[in-house]
Amino acid sequence: MTALGDPTRQAIFERLVDRPRPVGELAGELPVSRPAVSQHLKVLKDAGLVIDRKVGTRRLYQVDPRAVADLRAYFDAFWDQSLAAFRDAAEHEEKSDG
Amino acid sequence: MVDQQQHSVGAAVRQSVVVDAPPERAFAVFTAGMTSWWPIESHSIGTKPMTAAVMEPRTGGRWFERAADGSECDWGRVLAWEPPHRVVLAWQISSDWQADPDIHTEVEVRFHPEDAERTRVELEHRGLESYGPRAEEMRGIFGSDGGWRGLLGRFAETARA
């Protein structure tokens, strides 16, 4: 069972990727109750995907930057190596033409 | 080394590379010639050894890998086909390298002529937030030495040799 193996939690996560939001705003945008949103956020938080912080009287939820950083680091490494190989292939074909 | 640009807006990665080839050739090698540069050994999703990466040359075409026995595994779709300027691919592969229709990420590649002999190839892989449901697994995969990072390191050494 994964923390985001649920369409509502995925929808919440994707909204938080966009920008930090409070519980009430998420509940207003999704067809679920505020307590349900809170419960989903708790699961996401326990999984280390989402963090929260207090701003004045509100509590804002946001994606844990480390989770997104891992994704970016992975695909950066993948495309870095793959594009280097692509460049070599494109240039090698040209040089060995004929 | 490949030029690298990282942006912090949205869940996307962007990179570019300049190749000593005109756009027509760069586009052809990236698409029709994908098998010549794709890390086949480490980045295959089929159960049998992959022998080719195939991109059907049209919008709406399939993008898949093929094994020696002819069996195929889908990677995604061609969303835009504009040779020799631009190609956009739907990348629908999960973090554990399985075809997954719930994953909706896009790879856009643009080919800009720098001069008569050189092309700047700009790549953007966006929509990575689609991996939200898999982020936990990915952490485990990436965190270990035996994971994809290790495989990519080995690939890099092979490519340089």
Brief rundown of the structure:
By secondary structure, chain A is α+β, with helices and mostly antiparallel strands. Chain A has 4 helices and 3 strands. By secondary structure, chain B is α+β, with helices and mostly antiparallel strands.
Structure description:
The complex is a heterodimer of chains A (98) and B (161). Chain A is of the alpha+beta class and 98 residues long. Chain A has two domains: 7-63, Arc Repressor Mutant, subunit A (Orthogonal Bundle); 65-98. Helices cover 64% and strands 14% of the residues of chain A. Chain A has four helices and three strands. Chain A has helices spanning 7-18, 23-29, 34-46, 65-95; strands at 21-22, 50-55, 58-63. Chain A has a three-stranded antiparallel sheet with strand order 1-3-2. Chain A is elongated. Chain B has one domain (4-131): Alpha-D-Glucose-1,6-Bisphosphate, Chain A, domain 4 (2-Layer Sandwich). Helices cover 19% and strands 34% of the residues of chain B. In chain B, strands 1-2-8-7-6-5-4-3 form an eight-stranded antiparallel sheet, covered by helices on one side. The A-B interface holds A 2-5, 10, 13-14, 17, 47-49, 67-68, 70-91, 93-94 and B 1-2, 4, 6, 10-13, 15, 17-21, 25-26, 29-30, 33, 36-39, 43, 121, 123, 125, 128-139, 142, 148-149, 152, 155-156, 159.
SSE inventory with pairings:
The complex is a heterodimer of chains A (98) and B (161).
Chain A: H1 7-18, E1 21-22, H2 23-29, H3 34-46, E2 50-55, E3 58-63, H4 65-95
Antiparallel strand pairs in A: 1-3, 2-3
Helix pairs in contact in A: 1-3, 2-3
Chain B: E1 4-5, E2 13-19, H1 23-30, E3 50-55, E4 62-67, E5 72-82, E6 86-91, E7 105-113, E8 119-126, H2 135-143, H3 148-160
- Give me the CATH architecture of the largest domain in chain A, please: Orthogonal Bundle
What is the helical fraction of chain A, as a range of percent?
55-70%
- The CATH superfamily name of the largest domain in chain A is Winged helix-like DNA-binding domain superfamily/Winged helix DNA-binding domain
Topology-level CATH name of the largest domain in chain A: Arc Repressor Mutant, subunit A
Q: Can you tell me the CATH superfamily of chain B? A: START domain
The class by helix and strand makeup of chain A works out as: alpha+beta
- Arithmetic mean pLDDT of chain A: 82
The shape of chain B, in one word, is globular
- Over all CA atoms, what is the radius of gyration of chain B? 16 Å
**Helix and strand composition category of chain B:** alpha+beta
Distance between the termini of chain A: 56 Å
What summary fits the major beta sheet of chain B?
8 strands, antiparallel
Radius of gyration of chain A: 20 Å
Number of domains of chain B: 1
Given this structure, which CATH class of chain B is correct?
Alpha Beta
Strand arrangement within the widest β-sheet of chain A reads 1-3-2
Measured distance between first and last alpha carbons of chain B: 14 Å
Low-pLDDT stretches of chain A are: none
Into which percentage range does the β-strand content of chain B fall?
Answer: 25-35%
